[in-house]
Predict the structure.
Amino acid sequence: MIWGLVGASNIAGQYMIAAIRAQAGGSAKWVVSGSNARAQDFAGKYGIEASTTDIDTMLSDPEVESVYISSTNEKHYDQACRAIAAGKKVLCEKPLAMSLDDAVDMVGRASEAGTLFATNHHLRNAGSHLAIRELIASGAIGSVQSVRVFHAVPLPEKLQAWRVNDPVAGGGVVLDIVVHDADTIRFHLAEDPVEVVALTRSAGLGQGVEDSVMSAWSMESGAQVQVHASFTHRYAETGIEIYGSKGSIRGRGVMTQRPVGAIELMTDDGSKSIDFDIHDLYTRAVSLFDAAARGEGDPAASGIDGVKSLAVALAVLQAADRGNRVVVDYGGL
Ligand code: NDP
């Protein structure tokens, strides 16, 4: 599959170009950037054939079948709509858009056009999370009562920029990390969060945006979820703990882009370490996208998954802002 990349971004350079090239016939032909110099630098650095500042120039190339959007968040909506209108398949970064209406609209446009549209939620591609999901679905821990997510990290300096100081670009830890947590919870529990409460703060890094959040959610089944996400925590281990009526699962170091971590299952039979497949998360995401483009199965995370993860993140922000419980609005989906 031949791709056009929209955004001369870190995520494209660090993970996605390699993931595209790992597929049979996979090629990143174009990069589109807001800056000509950045587009050319990026193309030279990663061996990309063509670069432009005009997305429509890239979209008019009939060889380009799919578009990967990893610009800053406020640009996703317009770029995705253009790509869909041009008949391209779209893999869009999270959060899909800055508002629920825009996210619902882009996914609706793709659906009307009969175009494949997917969201790049990497965690559901991790061997660790696939194994956790399988344990829950197999009934190994009975019915889930509660989940705790530990996703407080130190944000590397090279990733700070707009993430810590630009609300217009969609900065802040909630739109950056809580969207992934929401998707992961939905993936594991196969149900949606219904209601949330939250407290945010800026603990030194965030300027005009929050860099830390603690929130609690109730699920359709009544299960309770606790999510702690931050950009400012050094030496904090990430993880997820799932407590069921018959046992518990502890995933250590698994809220990450890398295929690492450890899983432990605890039941009346004792404690057991769970093996899982080690593979690159992004390569699996692109592989499933490619297969879906051939009519074989679904992408790892659909457009609707992207709308729902954004809906939960927006509810968290609203709950923190208002200081009360917020019912998650999924925009009718
Ligand atoms: P970057 O900051 O690396 O890139 C985002 C945009 O910033 C680029 O598209 C580029 O704009 C601009 N930019 C890059 N470098 C510079 C620079 N030196 N000076 C000025 N502008 C610059 O962002 P990320 O790669 O971290 O994130 C991009 C998107 O991907 C976001 O939506 C984010 O939420 C998402 N993401 C998803 C991850 C996942 O695992 N699914 C992980 C990380 C990010 P231009 O296009 O105009 O060149």
